[in-house]
Amino acid sequence: MPTRSVQIDPHAHLEGRLVRRYKRFLADVEFASGEVVTVHCPNPGSMRGTDAPGSRVRCSVSDNPKRKLAHTLEMIRVGRIWVGLHAVRANHLAARALEAGAIAGLEGYARVESEVKVDERSRLDFRLDDHARRREACFIEVKSVTMAEGEGGLFPDAVTERGRKHLEALAHLRSSGHRAVLLFVVQRGDCVSVSPADTIDPAYGETLRAVAAQGVETIAVRARVSARSIRLEGTLPVLL
């Protein structure tokens, strides 16, 4: 079954220009009124290639009085496309796609559980159960891809020890008889493949290749990001 289209609404209603991104989780954005507002940046990576000052950005707004910053940076314009910067949106899109059975190779499971504790140190994003033909559970970790070189998406965009621990957790689950899947969600529409970013984190790439050889599956899906939606388009090859 080919991957089917599903979408989520990023609520990115306000457009502005990026002034700067700093301290990992902060960015300054200038809106059309000329006001410069400090917004939450929900991307823990380096945002390499997606943080150019002056770029068009779109933000969502929360009315939660407990939040220190009402605005959240959702996406940035890179050339002719929008790139989704909110890492959690990748999980939201994956959840909707898994529940709808919309991702090729991951369809057919009747139960989808999120934020699954797999040991004392690790949680993974999803567990799938109750497949019509497969008896083993399927554990999935989602990674949001925003960096690209040419038409190739790359992950990670910063050294990630936590990401390597997720790979080790997946490998342990696979050795215990479960399915284990690393799911890349590419939040930009200009990529035709995904690869590990060996020049940024060679240890991650080495670990990814090792666990893939042990049976951990790698699947990549591409999302088209727009002001109104983040829409799953289809699968991409993962080049290891």
The fraction of residues assigned to DSSP E strands is 35-45%
Number of domains: 2
Shape: globular
Count of strand segments: 16
Major sheet: size, sense and barrel closure? 7 strands, mixed
Distance between the termini: 24 Å
H/E series: EEEEEEEHEEEEEHEEHEE
Backbone CA Rg:
18 Å
The helicity comes to 10-25%
Describe this structure in words.
- The protein is of the alpha+beta class.
- The protein has two domains: 8-83, OB fold (Dihydrolipoamide Acetyltransferase, E2P) (Beta Barrel), CATH 2.40.50.580; 87-236, Trna Endonuclease, Chain: A, domain 1, CATH 3.40.1350.
- It contains three helices and 16 strands.
- It has helices spanning 87-99, 161-175, 202-213; strands spanning 7-8, 14-22, 26-31, 36-40, 56-61, 71-78, 81-84, 109-117, 123-131, 138-145, 147-149, 152-155, 179-186, 193-196, 217-225, 230-236.
- It has a seven-stranded mixed sheet. A six-stranded antiparallel sheet has the order 4-3-2-5-6-7, with no helix packed on it.
- α2 runs parallel beside α3.
- The mean pLDDT is 95.
